[in-house]
Amino acid sequence: YYVLTGEPPRRGKNARDTMDLAARGWYAPLAERRPGGVVPPDLERLICRALAVNVEDRPASVQEMIEEVQS
Q: Fewer Cβ atoms within 10 A, N terminus or C terminus of the chain?
């Protein structure tokens, strides 16, 4: 997320607010934060999975993410 936007996915008014946003799974959509607003749909889906609140919904490893990007 940060590499594509230059910003963290969540930024609250303070640390507690930021942790609350993370616990709720909220983050600013990539297209809103990315200069030019264009993110390939497959890449955006992968990033959304990586930011999922539930561990079971996230890629299990970096290797899994690499394989997804390469496919």
A: C
